Known about the structure:
With 141 residues, this protein is α/β, with parallel strands linked by helices. Helices cover 38% and strands 25% of the residues. A five-stranded mixed sheet has the order 1-2-4-3-7, with helices on both faces. A two-stranded antiparallel sheet has the order 5-6. The termini are far apart.
Amino acid sequence: MWELKEIAGKSCHILHEGNGGPVFLWPFYPHEGKELERLENALQKALPDGGYTIAAWQVEDWNRDLSPWAAPMAMGEGQFAGGATSVLGWVTETLLPELKKWILTEQGTWIPENAEGTKYYLMGYSLAGLFALWSLYEMAG
């Protein structure tokens, strides 16, 4: 069952199924509706034995929060603001520790960060996909 948590001012939807398994981190913009349910259904098909956690946080301003650098939009009016650095900091310094604490205290199960086999996936599509790839590059360096 999905839990809605406020984590440092961001609405975060958390689903924990089974014990251990991968952790999926997903910035999403809930404009299309039912995105959380579609992701849950896809993961249930891909991981029929269960064992995964999803932490999906609502993005306030897509073009500000997920763009790695400032740039004019290619079409239409507006600007990409380059706020991805602060969002990545929120993910690593706030979201992950809070997520671990929530799972440990309320769910009673967790595979520690350094446990063999624990995988973390930052995922997204469109600008959130760019954010995920950019984050991987930033964290690898």
